[in-house]
Design a protein that fits this description.
SDR_fam; binds (2E)-Hexenoyl-CoA; 7-stranded parallel β-sheet; binds NADPH dihydro-nicotinamide-adenine-dinucleotide phosphate; globular
């Protein structure tokens, strides 16, 4: 494995005056995105289910640049109310739909309940949050960044539910990029490769480091969450003003390799 460090290239003040909403701001990619947006001048409202981790993110940013709401994004009424409250108090120039996840199982072992829980988290919540944000995004000519997965267009063993949900988000992203273009709203998806956040670190093991990073990622490196954050900030900045409806895979070339599969037998 080759370790790469997160890179910061955008100038201080790039996002001065921006109001952003980041789901899953209490850890991993969402925390890195929150910290970087705030460093660049944005005010960020975070959403997640755990107050302690959301508060800990606040310790990494200047006071006044961040607040949070404890909320499950699958509670559609509650999360829509949070979006509306944020929009009314701060305006909304950027929505980052980052909260997400799945268990890893072959399709035969995914029950109807398991399918529904992953679809609710990774697709249905994104639709409702984005719809609730629409009037505020229209007022600011704002942007949406949906955090997806490298390989969303090709499939990944052990992730039938999650890939189906993220492919749905990609379709939603491109559809809304068309429907809302006249209002100046842009929507894009980012596809990170293997990110060694705590969710994967328990498994940071032979499978994650040996298979996903060394075998399945041509550049043999994990994706630093800070690199994902810099790309989110770029898309929110004036430099991203004509980018919409895209899937940007930030994955060391993993989408060109043998695929990121969560069933280790895929690599035998
Ligand atoms: C290379 C890229 C890889 C990507 C990496 C990342 O994204 S890492 C970053 C992301 N971080 C994460 O992904 C964090 C970890 N993931 C999670 O928090 C959860 O997996 C969740 C969000 C999907 C479910 O949340 P929830 O509160 O709804 O869970 P619940 O307990 O109420 O169960 C609901 C249903 O699911 C079923 N079920 C559950 N587990 C398994 C299993 N192993 N097997 C089979 N089935 C399973 C369970 O039986 C039930 O179905 P039933 O019995 O009613 O038919
Ligand atoms: N790690 C990786 O290799 C990759 C991750 N991704 C995706 O990136 C995104 C971020 O993942 P990552 O940072 O790695 O992992 P984390 O598990 O650290 O982040 C997931 C975040 O989402 C929040 N969250 C989960 N469920 C809910 C919910 N129902 N309501 C509100 N918030 C919720 C969690 O907070 P809380 O538990 O407090 O609610 C947590 O902060 C996910 O969508 C993931 O699938 C994509 C490619 C690769």
């Amino acid at each position: 494995m080759t370790a790469t460090k997160g890179t910061r290239v955008l100038a201080p003040g790039t996002l001065d005056g921006l109001s952003a909403l980041v789901t899953g701001a209490g850890s991993g990619i969402g925390r890195a995105v929150t910290v970087r947006l705030a460093e660049l001048g944005a005010h960020v409202t975070g959403i997640g289910r755990h107050e302690d981790t959301l508060a800990a993110t606040g310790e990494l940013v200047d006071s006044g640049a961040y607040d949070y709401h404890v909320c499950d994004v699958r509670d559609l009424d509650a999360v829509s109310a949070v979006v509306a409250d944020t929009g009314r108090r701060h305006g909304l120039g950027l929505l980052v739909n980052n909260a997400g996840g799945q268990f890893f199982a072959r399709a035969d072992d995914i029950s109807p309940g398991g399918w529904r829980s992953v679809l609710d988290l990774n697709l249905t919540s994104v639709f409702h949050i984005t719809k609730a944000a629409h009037p505020f995004l229209a007022a600011s000519r704002g942007a949406v960044v949906n955090i997806s997965l490298s390989g969303v267009e090709r499939g990944g063993m052990g992730m039938a539910h999650s890939i189906a949900a993220r492919a749905g988000v990609l379709g939603l992203t491109r559809t809304l990029a068309l429907e809302w273009a006249a209002e100046g709203i842009r929507l894009n998806c980012l596809g990170p490769g293997t990110v060694l956040t705590h969710a994967l670190s328990d498994e940071a093991s032979e499978h994650v480091l040996g298979n996903l990073v060394d075998r399945a990622t041509p550049m043999r490196t994990p994706t630093p969450p800070e690199d994902v954050a810099e790309l989110v900030a770029f898309l929110a900045s004036p430099a991203g003003a004509l980018m919409t409806g895209q899937l940007l895979q930030i994955d060391g070339g993993a989408h060109l390799g043998p695929g990121l599969h969560m069933l280790p037998e895929a690599y035998r």
